[in-house]
Every structure is written in structure tokens, then in C-alpha cells.
Design brief:
177 residues
Length: 177
Amino acid sequence: MASYYYLVATLPMLKYEDSAPFSCDEFLRLCKSNVNKNDYKIITEALSGNTASYKFVKNWHQFDTNVKKELAEQRSKKLNRKGDKYNNTNYKEFRIVEGVRAALAAKNAYEGELLLMKLCWKYLDEESTNHVFDLEGLLAFSIKLKLLERKSRFDKVEGNKEFKSLLNNLQSTMKSN
């Protein structure tokens, strides 16, 4: 297994509370010249969300899928929707069930989304423990970077504008019917 001491030593430490120090595209450019081709392919698969055969990436995708399925199940229960398509038939982890419950109980959707991102961040921390200078460490870094990039796109002013626009469209549609 390859070790990437130099590359990892040049990367900043990512903190959930901070913003992304650079984009995922910049990170990929950095990796392209510093990791072997197979590992680069695995990193790009992890960032793309495509299914991958590498265990760390498969486990991450499974965790992310479990969070989404649990979210769908709990939301459908709140809306009194019934049916097999709403049931989470995957293995249920306590931390996921409780994390989703807390997110749905948050004071607003933004706060709920941040709680879900924090749940994912903690999972990546746990999975990458003792994997600092290897591929797993780079994979955890890349996925965390993607989370920070996504978090940075949440803009309160733009979000309020979009909400008002959607609300106006909905009101117009209701008035015309």
C-alpha cells in the first residue's frame, strides 16, 4: 500500500467549522501528480459518488445511502405516508436513526442539513482513524472537502430569495386555479 507522506504533509487540516481551503477540483489536480494512477481513480470515484470496488469508498457510500434511506423513512412517517417504498430496509445504525431524528427536529431545514453533514463528518473521522498518510486518509480528506464545499454553497440571502420566488410562483398557481 502506498504512503503519501509528502502530499498529506502539504494539505491543511480540515475542520467542520471552517470553510473549504480549496475546491475538490484543485485537490484532484494536486493528487493527479502525487498519487499513483489506481489510487487517483479511486479518489475520483469517491468524489463522483459512483459505485466503487474499494472498501473504504463502498463503506462510505453505504453509510451515505443508509442516512438517505433513514431520512426518507422518517420524513414519510411524519407525513403519514405508508408503503414499502418508504421503509428503510437497510441495516439500521443507532447513530444514523438518532442523527436523522435530530435533523428533522431542528428549528429549520438549514440546521437539519448541518446536523446531517456533521453526522457524515464524524463517520469519516472514525473510519480514517490511524489512516493519516495512506489512501484512506486521502479519501476521508477528499470527502470532507466535498462536504465543506457543499456547506459553503448554503447562502442565507440567496436561499431566502429562492424561497420567496418559489412561494410567489406557488401563490400565483393557486390563484389561477
